[in-house]
Amino acid sequence: MLLAVFALASCAKTDSQSNQITDVYVEDFGSTDIKTCRPSDVDLSNAQAKEYFLRAREVEHKVIRDHYNYAPCHIEGTLKQNSTVCEWEIRAGATGHIKCNGAIKYYVCDTCDDLFTSKTSK
User: Fold this and answer.
1) What phi and psi, each to the nearest 5 degrees, are found at residue 48?
2) Residue 74: its pLDDT value, please?
3) SS3 state at 41
4) Which string of b and e fits 26-50 if b means at least 16 CB within 10 Å?
5) What is residue 15's predicted lDDT score, i.e. its pLDDT?
6) Fewest C-beta in 10 Å: which of 40, 46, 78, 101?
């Protein structure tokens, strides 16, 4: 029985390590409609972009398409996930994705409003 508990603890550690995100860098801003979606709408620092992915939950792309606003602007950059360099994107509507080794994982963050609040508003 002790061996089973150790095996479960080992699996839990492996699962948390499988989502280890480090070295998050914001590199660029993009918009398909600069009149309605500007850099200030998704003005996240490197630390805030990392925080987004730590808070966000992974979903299927269909969930984003059916239940979230797909904002026309985004920031993008690189990060390391399990020591692999990956590309990422975060949209103003608090949706995003990480592309690693050709695979794309989609994310939404329902607890990230504070990250997207403009520092100059109010």
Assistant:
1) -70, -35
2) 95
3) helix
4) beebebeeeeebeeebbbbeeebbb
5) 43
6) 101
